[in-house]
Amino acid sequence: MAIYLVQHGKSLPEDVDPEKGLALEGKEETVRVASTARDNGVHVSIIKHSGKKRARETAEIIASILAPKPRVEETQGLNPLDDVKILAKRLTKEQDLMLVGHLPFMQRLLSYLVTGSDDRPVFKFQNSGILCLDMDDKGRWLIKWAIMPVID
C-alpha cells in the first residue's frame, strides 16, 4: 500500500476568488506533476480532498489524468489545523490512497507518519507536488519518492 500526499495547487488571491480556486499556474503545475506520476505507473484507488475549492480542483485534475481514473471524494480531517493523529488512525493498508490538503496539515501528517511526532519537519512541500509514502515490512512509513513542480 502507498499513500500519496499532495498540497493543493497554487490558488487565486481571495480578492479575485473568495473561495480561492486554482490559479492558471496551479492548474498547469498540477497537470504536469500528475502526468509525470501517470507516466511512471502511479495508480490510485481513491483521492480524498478537504472540500476546499483549491483542494477539490487539484484532486479532480489529478483524477482526470491518472488511469484507471480514481474515485474522488471529500473527507473530514484534511483542513489546515486538523489533528493529524485522527486521520493517521483511519489509514488502512488495503488500498492506494491519495490525500489532497493544505499546509501545515500535510507537513504535520507526514512528520507524524514518518517520525511519530507531528512537529519534526522531514520534507518541504510544494503546491501541486506529490509525495509517496510506503509502509515497510515492520509497519513503518517511509518516503519512497516525490514529484515536485520545481526543483530549487
Structure, described:
With 152 residues, the protein is of the alpha/beta class. The chain has one domain: Rossmann fold, CATH 3.40.50. The chain is 31% helix and 21% strand. The chain has helices at 24-39, 53-65, 84-90, 105-115; strands at 2-7, 46-49, 71-74, 97-101, 130-135, 141-147. It has a 6-stranded mixed sheet with strand order 3-2-4-1-5-6, with helices on both faces. Strand 2 (46-49), helix 2 (53-65) and strand 3 form a beta-alpha-beta unit. The longest helix is centred in the first third of the chain and has 16 residues, at 24-39. It is globular and about 45 Å long. It starts with a strand and ends in a 5-residue tail after the last strand. The mean pLDDT is 95.
